[in-house]
Every structure is written in C-alpha cells, then in structure tokens.
Amino acid sequence: MSNVVRLVPAVGDEARDEAIVEKASVEAMIGAALRIERLRVRMSQENLGDGVGVSFQQVQKWEQGKNRISVSRLLTAAAVIGFDPGVFVTDLYDGTLTEGAVSARAEAAKNFDTLGVLELCRLFNAMTAKQRKVVLSLMRELAGDDG
C-alpha cells in the first residue's frame, strides 16, 4: 500500500477507476480535524451531536474515522462549532495526503484530550514573548527536557 493518498478528479471511467481514495485515511484526517475543533471550543460530543442531529456515538465514530461524515453534516458541524469548514480539506486541496499527515493530525487530537492542554494554550497565547520564554523554561525543567 502506498504512503500517499491521491485524489484524482473523476473524468470518465478510466479516471474514475484511478480516483480511488484511501477512505480510511481521509476519514481519519477529517475526524481528527473535527475533534480538534470541537475540543478547541470545549464542546462535548453530546452537544455537537444534538446540534447536528445525531447521537454522541455517531460523533465518536466520525472523530475516530470509523464512519464517513456527509458533506451536509460536516457543514452543519462546522456551523455548530463555529469555524470555517475549509479546515477539513486544506491538506487535501493540493491533491495528495500523506499517511504521516493523518497520523500527525490524529496525534494532535489525542493531545487535546489531556486535561488542561487547551487552557494552557489559551493562557500561553495571552502572554508576552518574555513571559512565554520563562514559562517554556519552567515547563522544560519540570518535564526533565533539555529542549
């Protein structure tokens, strides 16, 4: 299996046959982006599901890349969360999507689940450059990272 997903415009039978997208990778990428955006605004899967008209279990399946989300549901989810739905397809726009990008997005989504990560990000962004430097130094010291 190739480590690149190729998105080829379907024009005729031959091109359509070549336009096979590695579905699991695309769904994982979109699901991870959905999770990141939902967590960014501190929304539960249940609240997102209510806003979109599905169960929290369905939202869970989308976020895990187990089920495909329709474009209409994706647009509704974007409206409920309050962000540009283009974030879902930015990495797909140039025609290729590496499996590494999918893994990185999924890993980022997992990191957002760690208690306090979003709050730390918000607070860090509110600091001056000098304060950020001090905080990073302290965090490296506490984590035992020579960074």
Describe this structure in words.
A two-stranded antiparallel sheet has the order 1-2. 18% of the residues are buried. The chain is built from eight helices and two strands. The protein has two domains: 4-113, lambda repressor-like DNA-binding domains (434 Repressor (Amino-terminal Domain)), CATH 1.10.260; 114-147. The protein is mainly alpha-helical and 147 residues long. Helix content is 61%, strand content 4%.
The level-1 CATH class of the largest domain: Mainly Alpha
- CATH architecture title of the largest domain: Orthogonal Bundle
Largest sheet: 2 strands, antiparallel
Spatially, the strands of the biggest sheet line up as 1-2
Could you give the order of the helices and strands? EHHHHHEHHH
Q: Which shape, going by the Cα principal axes?
A: elongated
- The average pLDDT value, as a whole number, equals 76
Class derived from helix and strand content = mainly alpha
Which percent range describes the beta-strand content?
Answer: under 5%
Roughly what percent helix? 55-70%
Number of helices: 8
The tally of domains stands at: 2
What quaternary form is this?
single chain
CATH superfamily of the largest domain: lambda repressor-like DNA-binding domains
Distance between the termini: 36 Å
The name of the CATH topology of the largest domain is 434 Repressor (Amino-terminal Domain)
* CA gyration radius, whole angstroms: 18 Å
- Total beta strand runs: 2
Which segments are poorly predicted (pLDDT under 50) over 5 or more consecutive residues? 1-11, 15-21
